[in-house]
Structures are given as C-alpha cells and as structure tokens.
Amino acid sequence: MPLDFPASRSGNGPEISVCVPVYNEEDNVALLHQKIVASLEPTGRTFEMVLVDDGSRDRSVERLAEIAASDPRLVVVRFQRNFGQTAAMMAGIDHARGRYVVTMDGDLQNDPVDIPMMLDKLDEGYDLVVGYRINRQDKFLSRKLPSRIANWLIGKVTGIPIRDNGCSLKVYRADVIKRVPLYSDMHRFIPAMSTQMGARVAEVGVRHHARRFGVSKYGLSRVFKVLLDLISIKTLQIFTRRPLARFSGAAALSSAAALFAMVTMRGGDLVVETAVVGLLVALAVFLLFLGLITGAMFQQRDP
Ligand code: UDP
Ligand code: MG
Predict the structure, then answer these.
(1) Least distant ligand from the CA of 79
(2) Whose CA is nearest to atom 16 of ligand 1?
(3) Share of the chain above pLDDT 70, in %
(4) Residue 6: band (very low, low, confident or very high) from pLDDT cuts 50, 70, 90
(5) Where is the Glycosyltransferase 2-like domain (predicted)?
(6) Cα dihedral sign for 281, 282, 287, 292?
C-alpha cells in the first residue's frame, strides 16, 4: 500500500526534505505537490516531500496516496487521529532524511517559490532561515493583530526578537532542528529555542497568499495556548542552565524564612508556628528535589 512508510528510511537521503503537516486539505495537496516540484526541480538539488496527514477526515489521504503512487519522492506519514500542527511537523522532521529540512503549511498560504532563495541564504552560513510574511493575507483583527502582539511579547520574554514567529516557512540544517524538542504548540518558538541552543538565525521576507481552498483550523483560543507555551519556554530558559544552583538558592531562602519564623514566633501559638515552619521546610526540601530532578533531566538530554 503506497501509504505505508517506505521499507527503509535509512541510507543516503536526498539533499532537501520538505515537511508539511496536512489536516483536511484535500483540495490543496495536489497543487502543493506540483508547486514544490516546480520550485525545486530547476535547482538541480535532490529532494523529498514528507507530508504528514494529521488525522484528516476529508479525502486528503486518498489524494496523497494517488500522488505518492506516481512520485517516489513523496513520503506520506499518517496519524491515526488529529494530534495538532506541531506534532505533525515534528513527525515530518523525524522522518526527514535530507541534510536540509524545509517546513511550510499545506494550504498554499506559504509559497514553495521562496524555498530556493531560503536555501541560498542558509548556504551563507546560517543554521536556520525564518520567513516573515510580507503583505500577509489574513484578517486583521483575528489574525494579524494578535500575531503582532504575540511577536512583541515573545521577543520581550525570550529576549530573542523574531519578526514573524507564526510563519511556518522555514529552512533548517537537519542536525540542528532534529535536536530542538517540540511539543504542545511550540513550533512557533523554534527560532527562539534554536537561538538559545546557539543556532545562527537569518530572517527573510516571503510571499503569503490568502487561503483559496479549505478553512483555517484555528480560532482565537490559540492565543491562550501561545501564552501558556510562552510561560513554559521562559521556565525552560531559566532552568536549563545550572538548575540545581537556581533551585537550591530558592531552597536556601525558604530555609532562612523557616529559621526566621522559628525565632520570631517563639512563645506564640505552637500550632501556627509548627504549621508555618513545617510548610517552609517542606518547600525547601521540595525545591531541592526539583533542582536535583531538573538537573538530572537536562544532563541526560545533553549528549
Ligand atoms: N494543521 C495540522 N493539524 C492541525 C491544524 C493545522 O496539520 O491540527 C495544518 C494545516 O493543514 C495547515 C497548517 O497546519 O497545513 C496551518 O494550519 P492553518 O492554515 O489552519 O493555520 P492558519 O494559516 O489559519 O494560521
Ligand atoms: Mg493557513
């Protein structure tokens, strides 16, 4: 069956892997395939397309199967149910065999025409080339305005200003992107997370089109997800380096507070004193353990 993974995903891969999450995009996939081929074939570079079906309920899978039957460069990965854009993107990146990875949306809002220019930029010595949508073709109030605020906020919180975190069209060195851990809706934070890991990032202006077929999969609720993810990213940023030192500092403060409480509350209500001191000591112990666990976790992840 053409939808199964090819027997072997090892061996010499192509130069470029274009990874695309697809969720109910039945009228877009054939055109997308055509446009990627038309954009990359003239460059003479070898490429594959890894299209990840994120549990579509329309005929996307059938359409993909038809294309894959006539083009061996198309690899189709299928999810049993809808896991979300980030998970689908990550599955694509995991299956990519190319030295370079391209990510983009599957609804033709990004334009494959921009890929060669972005690859050339990467060749100038970058690890990651991020697109920013020039003349973005989305609604102002529900899309562009929240996105502008989010970009400003992400820049402030992470200390890494990126013009357009929400633009999926990006080109990476495979060995760099394969090391960035992605979960929740965190594909929006890839530039910030990779910069933190030492990646050299360039930004280039890219085309953007209005959606012609199908509908957007997101509503305004994504704003809250982005905010929660931002908190997670900041927490990671703070604790990835020397977590034990940071947590034990907080634990020492809590112990000092416990000592202070013991001295000042002497002679008062014994029940209250025991409760306050007990809580502070428990907090100190908890923080120390948290430091140890986080320390072990990050040490394990570092090669
Ligand atoms: N997508 C996905 N899983 C989802 C939601 C979206 O794979 O749960 C894909 C979707 O098919 C498209 C891309 O992610 O290729 C961007 O989605 P969409 O166009 O709905 O986002 P918008 O452009 O409205 O921000
Ligand atoms: Mg879209």
Answers:
(1) 1
(2) 105
(3) 94
(4) very low
(5) 17-179
(6) positive
